[in-house]
Amino acid sequence: MKPPLSSSSSSSSVLRKPRHLSPYLFSLLAFIVFVAILYGEDVACVFNQQLQLGSDSPRYFTGPSSLVFGVEKKREKALPFAIGKTDPSCDIFSGRWVYDESRPLYEESDCPYIQPQLTCLEHGRPETNYQHWRWQPNGCDLPRFNATLMLETLRGKRMMFVGDSLNRGQYVSMVCLLHKLIPEDGKSMETFDSLTVFTAKEYNATIEFYWAPFILESNSDNAVIHRVSDRIVRKGSINKHGKHWKGVDIMVFNTYLWWMTGLKMKILRGSFDDEAKDIMELSTEDAYRMAMRSMLRWVRINMDRKKTRVFFTSMSPTHAKSGDWGGVPGRNCYNETRMIEDPNYWGSDSRKSIMEVIGDVFRKSKFPVTFLNITQLSLYRKDAHTSIYKKQWSPLTPEQIANPVSYADCTHWCLPGLQDTWNELLFAKLFYP
């Protein structure tokens, strides 16, 4: 039986009051629930590493909030391949070198993929101290490089290093860090013009290097014959190389050393096939800015931010002027077996203006790029270069033999050595951004 529609006037008044207020209560409750859900998701993001926080290092650029020498904190969705995060108070690129007897991570003689230009022990280097240094960030530790995790992550995928010979050294280092887990008949390395491909057959994975010292098309693009003193870069030409990069899952770019030809850079408007070439000159910084913008535009158009990762390795320093670190004038890295201990050391060959260009361009990027700031930590390592302990491109003259400083290579790095640390940093930012 239905209850009576009305009883006493007092009870009727009581019943009507909540009915009159219920829409407002409902709206208020709905708003509270919405806010709770909204903030609940933010809390979940924090604990599930869905936030990408910057720091006071130029290592990660996500957009307008990023500055090259002081990144503001900004929320960002979890990056592909991330399984954790680095404590935002820890700058893994700021720290010190610690001598570690457990290093190197592999032996020179055990990695057949190292170019003879980087096998320092094979070419007579008398000591191995340069192999035993481990990078120790201030206030935290780098995650230990896990070759099994790296290979499993690369299963069915492509990883590519694009750039110059410094990036090729980092590429070879990565191959050396991984190849021991792969049986001899399950791996191969082949070169196709500018492209070198290491294949892990069981994993259906490739680790590749593509020679493009300027990222854009240039007259130095021949992977073997590229010693061109009058360097020219073609404007708007990134697709010349970029067509070979499509489908890559993890990309590591670098470009710096080849731009350092002076204060100006020759830029070609048009084609290298044009009979009459239209060439203009730009400052090195403006030319470099042009290349960075082209690279980021290509990345935004051709890579999926939900599935792929892009890294950019900062300038690799040289140690060609001993006067920079208070050494004997006129000398260089030759016979240097100790690192530079001044934490504020910055060599004259490393242009801070280029770092500023990177910061200015990358902070406007609509695609997240992880910046591997290896410059400062590498600046300390004047002991880690190949120096004279490498295969020489041409026979040495008697004058050179009498003066080793004259032909010491203070640009490239012995392997195993410093560049293994670059890959440890890459590993950390790939899995724990």
UniProtKB/TrEMBL annotation:
GO terms for cellular component: Golgi apparatus; membrane. InterPro entries: TBL, TBL_C, TBL_N. The chain crosses the membrane at residues 21-40. It comes from the Eukaryota. Keywords: Membrane, Signal-anchor, Transmembrane, Transmembrane helix. The keyword Ribosomal protein does not apply. It is a single-pass membrane protein. Residues 89-141 form the Trichome birefringence-like N-terminal domain. It is found in: Membrane. Belongs to the PC-esterase family. TBL subfamily. This is Trichome birefringence-like N-terminal domain-containing protein. It comes from Cannabis sativa (Hemp). The lineage of its organism: Eukaryota, Viridiplantae, Streptophyta, Embryophyta, Tracheophyta.
